[in-house]
Amino acid sequence: MINNVAVIGAGTMGNGIAHVFAQHNFHVTLIDISSQQLEKALATISKNLDRQITKGQITEAEKQSALQNIVISTDIDQGVAAAHLVVEAATENENLKLQIFRQIDAIAPQDCILATNTSSISITKIAAATQRPQQVIGMHFMNPVPVMKLVEVINGYHTSSYVTGTIVELSKQLGKIPALANDYPGFVANRILMPMINEAIYTLQEGVADVEAIDTIMKLGMAHPMGPLQLADFIGLDVCLSIMKVLHEGFGDPKYAPCPLLVNMVHAGRLGVKTGEGFYVYTPGSKELVVSEKFRK
Ligand code: NAD
């Protein structure tokens, strides 16, 4: 029975994951190396719970109960010592994740399931850093976690069917819809999404169409909520590039080669929303979508 959940990493995804578990009455320990990041995460969770109150989805009492279900900690060992499930959502860096999994494997109770929210790192490789590869699984939430329904559940080579079944059921308990994938580069979501984004950037690079036209065609033509260039800005162009590299190296197929314009933009520090500019310019407080000067006619 899973009651105590440790979430490692209190960034964009970690605060959302903690929010959703806490809202569904799990005891959550949210862990980060930065206490500032932990305070910021709590403020974000509180603000996002307020938004749910405004929408009539939860009551003030449910907000307070969710907040009471969360404790924060900078001590990873203490945080995972009584966990039934750990969900790792630290920075997307392979060596860091291997080190975290080595550490939590040594401390977490024997039957604790170790899940990772990685977008692209091999679950099997992460599991190999532990003595319990059958209890390691991908639990890939989508951003923003409190809103997005999908959990991509990824089986590593050794993941047991019991662990998969537990995570599938747990995802449903969180009000999410789980979908199963196996551990190949990019799993399902990013294997399909990232080449589409990469192709959109090639289309721009080759002058087939401008930023607005590409996004309008994909948005209205395919009924996507946002165009691929805007989505790339939202995800972060550095993240898109690193996932394309995982696909390219993992399959050894030139069809996954990152578009040179994507590479250039990352080198130039134009990473999208997080740096204030990518294909579009982002001004705090403004929702207007303005194409970057670089791509204006
Ligand atoms: P982020 O940079 O917003 O947050 C990462 C957090 O991890 C930071 O607060 C950092 O201080 C913390 N951290 C770093 N080292 C740590 C350690 N040793 N112990 C504890 N905390 C540590 O990153 P994010 O966007 O939240 O991504 C987290 C994970 O989720 C990544 O694996 C990423 O691939 C995946 N993911 C991201 C998205 C997205 O849209 N951002 C979507 C799906 C999955």
From TrEMBL:
Enzyme class name: oxidoreductase
Keyword set, alphabetical order: Oxidoreductase
Record domain 3-hydroxyacyl-CoA dehydrogenase NAD binding: where: 4-183
Enzyme nomenclature, EC number: 1.1.1.157
InterPro entries: 3-OHacyl-CoA_DH, 3-OHacyl-CoA_DH_CS, 3-OHacyl-CoA_DH_NAD-bd, 3HC_DH_C, 6-PGluconate_DH-like_C_sf, 6PGD_dom2, NAD(P)-bd_dom_sf
Annotated TM spans: none
Matching Pfam families: 3HCDH, 3HCDH_N
Similarity comment: family membership: Belongs to the 3-hydroxyacyl-CoA dehydrogenase family.
Protein name: 3-hydroxybutyryl-CoA dehydrogenase
Organism of derivation: Mycovorax composti
